[in-house]
Amino acid sequence: MDAIRVTVRRGDVVEAVHRVHAATTDGASWGDPWMTFYFRSSCKPIQAIPFLEGYSDLGDDEIAIACASHRAEPAQLDAVRKVLARAGATVEDLENGLQEGRPEGKLGHNCSGKHAGMLAACRAHGWPLHPYRDRAHPLQQRIAELIGGDHVAVDGCGVPTFSTTLADAATLLTRTPPRIRAAMRARPELVGGSTGAVDTDLMRLRDGWIAKGGAEGLFCAAHEDGRGVALKAEDGAYRAVGPALALVLGVDELAETPVHNSRGEIVGAITLAP
Question: Which helix (H) or strand (E) holds 84?
Fold first, then answer.
């Protein structure tokens, strides 16, 4: 089946067209199910497993923020601070660097929850705190065992990221432990954001699903019944994911995303191509 075409329309004119490839664990696919890319942030629920393995008393907020690509919303930053306190660490211990336009320095980076969880995992397992992002560090060796991949690169926040195919990416979140799954379902607004985050939206709109977006137009999701799905925008445009997901999973609420101007006015829409 051909790749899914998503159009960006302003007024009556189509200004852009995105091609989205998709694969499911049921064997359905759109476009190329064997295209290769990196997991990026979609693998955060798996990267959080060493954090979970280190503690028996984690709150839903701590687990969810360790899986998050957050927007520096107050509740999200509070959850990162809570994980740092558990780790006995400070913001200066975070190895994620800075992110332009974000508040609170390194704390405001959208991967700071993951990094705080990594520090807490190191504390629990007796591993050195630094450099926890190094491929040779025990933490990253454990994560490599959990994820694997033929190629390893450096993610935007400095930690290793692993290569995959679209078909294999569809199985990723089916390996999420029940406790992490439950926390993501309980606090979906921490995983993405309070509004406008497709992964958060799917978890709110449909029972049983967990979801996590990744850089360059990647989106992975899994249902508690064992089904999994992955979508990848060919040009890396994450804005195409919602309408494509509406087609793949029948989530009609995501079929159209409004285009706003700087005044907050709706001036167009992102939809499936007719």
Answer: helix 74-87
Scanning the chain, the segments in alpha helix (DSSP H) are 44-47, 49-54, 60-66, 74-87, 112-125, 138-147, 166-169, 178-186, 188-191, 198-205, 241-249
* Count of beta carbons in the 10 Å neighbourhood of residue 53: 13
Of the chain, the end-to-end C-alpha distance in Å amounts to 16
Structure-block tokens of residue 200? 């958060």
Distance CA 103, CA 258 (A): 27
Q: Assign 242 a pLDDT band (cuts: 50, 70, 90).
A: very high
The phi and psi torsions of 223 (rounded to 5 degrees) equal -100, 155
Quickly list H helices, 170-240.
178-186, 188-191, 198-205
Over residues 161-192, the pLDDT tens digits come to 999 999 999 999 999 999 999 999 999 999 99
Which is it for the CA torsion 211, 203, 117, 214, positive or negative?
positive
